[in-house]
Automatic annotation (TrEMBL):
One of its GO terms (molecular function) is DNA binding. This is RNA polymerase, sigma-24 subunit, ECF subfamily. PANTHER family: ECF RNA POLYMERASE SIGMA FACTOR SIGD (PTHR43133:SF58), RNA POLYMERASE ECF-TYPE SIGMA FACTO (PTHR43133). SUPFAM superfamilies: Sigma2 domain of RNA polymerase sigma factors (SSF88946), Sigma3 and sigma4 domains of RNA polymerase sigma factors (SSF88659). It comes from Caulobacter segnis (strain ATCC 21756 / DSM 7131 / JCM 7823 / NBRC 15250 / LMG 17158 / TK0059). The lineage of its organism: Bacteria, Pseudomonadati, Pseudomonadota, Alphaproteobacteria, Caulobacterales. Keywords: DNA-binding, Sigma factor, Transcription, Transcription regulation. It comes from the Bacteria. GO terms for biological process: DNA-templated transcription initiation. InterPro entries: RNA_pol_sigma-70-like, RNA_pol_sigma-70_dom, RNA_pol_sigma70_r2, RNA_pol_sigma70_r4_t2, RNA_pol_sigma_r2, RNA_pol_sigma_r3/r4-like, WH-like_DNA-bd_sf.
Length: 179
């Protein structure tokens, strides 16, 4: 087990037991690793790196109950990141492949500047219900905007606008939490 795995797993386990500072530290360390992981794969679109980091952290937070604590945390988190990257490429109609073995690179990433984790539950809870549902449906479940809009009873265009506003609001809350 690597030092990163040991540290992240311990922090996540403490976070799952209700230790908020440990959970924030877990998300911060994971965010650092994710930035390096996505930056290497998104050299042509560095502006998308932070969006992918935030989407992945959000997914990790919302799906944390699906992680089997007897298994590797970093492998699970890497799988979430990998799927977020593939979804990003699909949305942009980019044809790329990722070897399944590249999780080793994820664990060995250089640490860029540290980031501060936030309570994602509170950030999501602060969104209006429709926006919260759209974020979950599109960014976590993987529904298309048309599908998510239909579930919410709104048009695809309205879903796109609402989702954009929700992500913008979440990003602003995260920036305020960092500062």
């Amino acid at each position: 087990m690597t030092e990163t795995e040991t540290r992240l797993k311990a922090l996540m386990l403490r976070g799952l037991e209700g230790d908020a500072p440990a959970y924030r530290a877990c998300l911060a360390l994971l965010g650092t690793r994710l930035r390096a992981y996505f930056a290497r794969r998104m050299a042509g679109a560095p502006g998308d790196v932070e969006d992918l980091v935030q989407e992945t952290l959000l997914a990790v937070h919302l799906k944390r109950s699906t992680w089997d604590s007897s298994q590797s945390f970093t492998a699970w988190a890497h799988a979430v990141a990998r799927y977020k990257l593939i979804d990003h490429w699909r949305r942009r109609k980019i044809r790329q492949t990722l070897p399944i073995e590249d999780h080793i690179e994820f664990l060995a990433a250089d640490e860029p500047e540290p980031s501060v984790g936030i309570e994602l539950d509170r950030a999501l809870a602060s969104l209006p219900e429709r926006q919260r549902i759209l974020v979950s449906d599109v960014k976590l479940t993987g529904l298309s905007l048309a599908e998510a809009g239909a579930r919410a009873g709104i048009s695809e265009g309205a879903a796109k606008v609402a989702l954009h506003r929700a992500l913008k609001a979440l990003a602003e809350r995260m920036r305020r939490a960092d500062g």
